[in-house]
Design goal:
- By secondary structure, this protein is of the alpha+beta class.
- The protein is built from 12 helices and 31 strands.
- The chain has a 6-stranded antiparallel beta sheet with strand order 1-12-11-8-3-4. The protein has a 6-stranded antiparallel beta sheet with strand order 7-6-5-2-9-10. A 3-stranded antiparallel beta sheet has the order 14-13-31.
- Strand 23 (387-390) and strand 24 form a beta hairpin.
- The longest helix is centred in the N-terminal third of the chain and has 25 residues, at 3-27.
Length: 493
């Protein structure tokens, strides 16, 4: 065989292999991430304005935009387009565009981008009756639409800080919120679990867009601008900057609320949380973030648990008729994750036991809030049947059900309290009281609002009123005022 003949076989094999590869790509196309079609920078964040949407409506409110078919890079409409635009899924992959009710023909893309012509100008679009800065990416994802807002971090914060801290806060509180929210957003940007970085509600941090920016006024924009790029590091690592509305006077260690243990999310006393009560004359709801009560009668409590069961069938409460509700406040060992024989520093509840005629169901840590529909886990349980009993050794017992409680009379005879009757009598300092053996109503009397980890927003508000700088507020909540240099505020770009 000649040299040419020997060389031809490998070439034919390579050509044949190339044809197979090309055909496989055509038959089994690889889905390219949506972000590949958008110019981004280290300061760009991706915010999901909506997912699993049947259709979306948008329009241009200010500035110049163009609507681009991402797959072909074809400009569907120019910067001057007006009117109402609606995008709906066309099958499981493509999108159909309607302009003022009329369908646009020739569009077969699964990705559409509403893109700023000049990102140095003020550009605002309206999406589902709310206004936002930046770009808008629309994608058909399994027959539903995902709407992702791509914008600069600092512009994103214009729409977050006021929405989170509320109106009327001191400037240093806004600055603290700006640094904390920037840190929170950057952490999620660096650790994405979805095809976006953040959402818009309290599951993430509240993002109100351009509407919130305008409502918050210049003080919020100034706070963001004067802390531009600043984020929080602990031992040279970006922190998970958890925050909440009100700690009720004392924040909590991370392991006592969630499972992870973090050295910078530790308990610290913050009496400044009480400022929420002082501000309540202006904001009627604010006092309830500091102290609150919630009462259920027995049927209302059952209804609350039925709602929980519907949403969480794998963790349902099936204990029959409820006899007793009890709590424990045991702290968690940060290494072993086991309960310790001591209470949490803040007094937060870490175990809830619901006892019924068919057994006991227990819930732990922050899940307790959701089960009972409460503002926080810093609470006590008060039933109309509750009694406090000291034994001979001086230990205190709190009982919410005394059906099986027995008494010893002067003759040493042991019997049930008042026999088989459903009530008994106790002589207290206030006189003779009638107490039911089984509760008919339960009150949860608590303090604080939220999980209680990291910065308390009302605590930051109170500290700022007292004269603390934003750096001191952050040191307080994320390093417990140690000032040991392990926590630093630095620019990330």
């Amino acid at each position: 065989m000649s040299f040419q003949g020997r060389a031809l076989k490998p070439c034919l094999h390579k050509v044949f292999l190339a044809v197979i590869i090309i055909l496989s790509i055509l038959i089994f196309p690889v889905k390219i991430p949506a972000a590949a079609y958008i110019d981004t920078t280290p300061t760009t964040v991706r915010v999901a304005l909506g997912i699993n949407l049947a259709s979306v409506e948008f329009s241009v409110s200010e500035g110049n935009y163009e609507l681009v078919d991402c797959l072909t890079q074809r400009v569907v409409s120019t910067a001057s387009f007006k009117g109402k635009w609606v995008v709906a899924p066309a099958g499981s992959t493509n999108l159909q565009i309607y302009h003022n009710g009329q369908p646009l023909q020739g569009i077969s893309s699964s990705l559409l981008l509403l893109r700023q012509v000049n990102d140095q100008e003020l550009n605002v679009f309206s999406f589902e009756q709310k206004k936002y800065r930046g770009n808008l990416l629309l994608e058909n994802f399994r027959g539903k639409i995902q709407a992702i807002n791509y914008l600069d971090m600092e512009q994103y914060l214009y729409g977050v800080v006021g929405a989170e801290m509320g109106l009327g806060a001191p400037e240093e509180a806004y600055k603290a919120q700006a640094v904390v929210s920037r840190t929170y957003a950057l952490y999620h940007k660096q650790h994405p679990q979805l095809n976006y970085d953040l959402g818009i509600n309290t599951q993430w941090q509240v993002y109100g867009g351009y509407d919130s920016e305008i409502a918050s006024g210049s003080i919020v924009k100034k706070a963001v601008d004067e802390t531009r790029g600043q984020v929080i590091y602990y031992d040279q690592e970006l922190i998970q900057a958890f925050f909440h509305s009100n700690s009720g006077g004392y924040s909590e260690a991370c392991e006592n609320v969630w499972s992870a243990s973090l050295p910078y999310i530790q308990p610290v006393a913050t009496p400044e949380d009480a400022v929420a009560v002082q501000v309540s004359s202006k904001l009627s709801w604010s006092a309830e973030t500091y102290h609150w009560e919630k009462t259920y009668n027995k049927q209302e409590l059952m209804n609350q648990l039925i709602q929980w069961n519907r949403a969480h069938p794998d963790n349902a409460v099936n204990v029959g008729e409820i006899l007793e509700i009890s709590v424990k406040r045991w702290a968690v060992d940060p290494q072993t994750k086991e309960f310790l024989a001591k209470e949490t520093d803040s007094g937060r509840v870490t175990q809830l036991d619901i006892k019924g005629t068919r057994g006991v169901k227990s819930f732990y840590r922050d899940t307790i809030r959701s089960v009972l529909g409460l503002r926080s886990t810093l609470f006590e349980v008060i039933c109309d049947s509750t009694v406090k009993i000291w034994n001979a050794f001086g230990s205190l017992y709190i009982l919410n059900n005394t059906e099986n409680l027995k008494a010893i009379n002067v003759d040493g005879y042991i019997s049930k309290l008042n026999g088989n009757k459903d009530k008994y009598y106790v002589l207290s300092a206030e006189g003779l009281k009638t107490i039911p053996k089984d509760f008919s109503a339960v009150t949860f009397k608590g303090k604080g609002n939220g999980h209680g980890l990291g910065m308390s927003q009302w605590g930051a508000w109170g500290m700022a009123l007292r004269g603390s700088k934003y750096t001191e507020i952050i040191e307080h909540f994320y390093n417990q005022d140690k000032n040991d240099g392990r926590l630093r505020i630095q620019t990330y770009f």
